[in-house]
Model the fold of this input.
Amino acid sequence: MIPISWYLILGAVLFIIGAAGVLLRRNVLIVLMSLELMLNSVNINLIAFGHEMNDPRGQIIAIFIIAITAAEVAIALGILVASLRNKHTLEVDDLSILKG
Done:
């Protein structure tokens, strides 16, 4: 059986890669994918802890996170397609359409 520390290390590495993508990249699609990577790393940790404690709540919460993430991606991609049609760019610095 694989020890829980390996799952935690994998989750931490994926979270760090995702955080670096959010902070360093300027393309909105890359930032969105980096956020997804961060959420998946949290799911890995939740499932690992749930399995370690013989409690299904970690898996249930992970399923809810996956469902919320799917809705978030659908809405974000719709906003990005509309923004791309108007501004013709996906750079974070160039998009000021949502400022009020």
